[in-house]
Amino acid sequence: MSFSLSINGGQRIVKSSEPGETLLEYVRSIGFTGAKEGCAEGECGACSVLWIEEKDENSRLRAIPSCLVPLAAAANREIYTVDALADQGRLCQAQRAIVEEGGSQCGYCTPGFVVSLFAAQSDRKDGSAALEALSGNLCRCTGYRPIRAAAQRLPLLGEDHFLIRRLASPPPRLGPLSWSSGSERFLRPTRLETLWEMAARSPEGRWAAGMTDLSVERNLRFQRSPCWISLEGIPELRRFRDGAQGIEIGAGLSLRELEERLGEIRNPPPGLQEWFPHFASPLIRNRASLGGNLATASPVGDAAPLLLVLDARLVLLSREESREVSLSAFFLGYRKTALRPGELIVSIRIPKPYPSIVRFYKVAKRQSDDITIVSLGAALDLGPARRVRLLRLAFGGVADRPLRLKAAEEALMDQPWELPAIERARLVLQESLSPIDDHRGSAAYRLAVAQNLLEKFHWQTRFLPN
Ligand SMILES: Cc1cc2nc3c(=O)[nH]c(=O)nc-3n(C[C@H](O)[C@H](O)[C@H](O)COP(=O)(O)OP(=O)(O)OC[C@H]3O[C@@H](n4cnc5c(N)ncnc54)[C@H](O)[C@@H]3O)c2cc1C
Ligand code: FES
Ligand code: FES
Asked: If you measure from the C-alpha of residue 141 to the centroid of ligand 3, how many angstroms do you get, rounded to a whole number?
C-alpha cells in the first residue's frame, strides 16, 4: 500500500507513515524544515505551505496550515514549502521585503508569513490587500510594524516566477485512496456509490471534510478514529448553483471557494460576503467547509446564526434516501444534530427572495481569528411606515445550540422599527434567554451582549432604505 505526492517539484512515494503523522511532520522529515510547528492547532500559521487546487481549467495556489492536514489527506497533492520559493537562487519578493523591512528576528514565524504573502500575490493581490492574508500568522518577537510594512510594499507578482507559470496547467487529480497507518485508516472515495460501500464496510468510519476541527482533536487531544472517510473527492458535495428558487451550496466547498463563487454571481444572499472575515483566518477558510461547521453543532459556530436568518435548509443524504430539513430543526442540543447514522450533509439551500437587510455580528476577544463569545444573525424587511414586515434573529453563544429567538421576533412584528420596540425586545431577551456560563463569558455578560447586539442592529439599520 502506498501513495504519492509531489513536494517542491519532486515526486515522493509514501509507503508507510506514523499513526497521526501530519503533512507538516512529513515535509520536515524529508528535509524541508522551513515550515515550523508553533501550535499544532491552526492558530499561528508557522506551518503554512502552499498547495495547488483547481481553478476552472487551470490551477491556483492556496496557503494551508499543514499541521491540520493528516499526511494521507495530502495524497496526490502538489505541495510547495517556503524552501522552494526562491527562484533560481533569488529570494522571492515576499522574502526580500521581509528581509529589507527587518520583519524577522528569531525567524520562527517568518516562513509562514512568506507563504501567506506569496499566496496572496498569486491571487493578484498586492500591498494592503496582501496584508489581509496575514490575519492567521502570529509573530511573538519582531512586532507587526515591519511585517506590515513588508506586506504593504509588495507589488503584484511577476508572471516570470516558476510557480506562477505552473498555474497555467491543471492540478493533479485527487483520485481514490485507501490507506492504513497503525490502527488508523483513511479512505477517500471519488464517487457516491463507492462512498456508501466503504461506509457499509466500515460502520465505525467518520466523515472528514477540511479536517480543521478533526485535526485539532487529533493533534491536541490525541483522538483517533479507526477510520476517516474523506468527502473531498465527492463531486456532489462541491456543487454551487444559483437558480430562480434560491442558491444551493455544496457542503464540502471550502469557505474560500464559496466566497469566490459568491463573488461571481449577480445577486448573492445578503450578509454572506461580509461574514467571511469574521470566520477564523484565510488559512483556515482555505480548508474549512460549511458542512463541517454545521455538523459540529457548536453553540458558538459562526455559520449557523447567519444561515438561520437566511432560512437555510439542509439536504441530507444516506444510502437509502435523500431528505431536506430546515436548519432550525437540525440542531437538537449540545453538539447534537438531526443527522442519522450514515447520513451526511450534501448541500445547503438558501431560498429566494432574500430578506433585504441581513447582518452578522460577532463578539470575541480579538477582532480576527478568535472564538465567538456571542454572535447575532439578523434579517429584516420593513413595510409601509417602516413597520417590521419580516424579522429573524438568531444567536450563537447564548444556549446549548445556535437558535432563532422567535419570542423576540414576534414581539417586534408589525411594530415601528424604533427604539421603544427595541427596548421591549431587550426585555423579551432577558426573559427567554438563559445563556451558558463559562470561562469565556458569564451568563450575565452574554445576556447583556446579546441585548446590545440587537440594539446595535437597530441603530445600524434605522435609516436604511428598505
Ligand atoms: C484556528 C481555528 C480557528 C477557527 N475559527 C473558527 C471561527 O472563527 N468560527 C467557527 O465557526 N469555527 C471556527 N473553527 C472551527 C472549524 O474551522 C469549522 O468548524 C469548520 O467549518 C469545520 O469544517 P471542516 O470542513 O474543517 O470540518 P471537519 O473538521 O472535517 O469536520 C468537522 C465535523 O463535521 C463532520 N462533517 C464534516 N463534513 C460533513 C458533512 N458534509 N456531513 C456530515 N458531517 C460532516 C465531521 O465528521 C466532523 O465531526 C476554527 C478552527 C480552527 C482550527
Ligand atoms: S503549527 Fe500553528 S498553525 Fe500549524
Ligand atoms: S520573528 Fe520570532 S516569532 Fe516572529
From this structure: 5
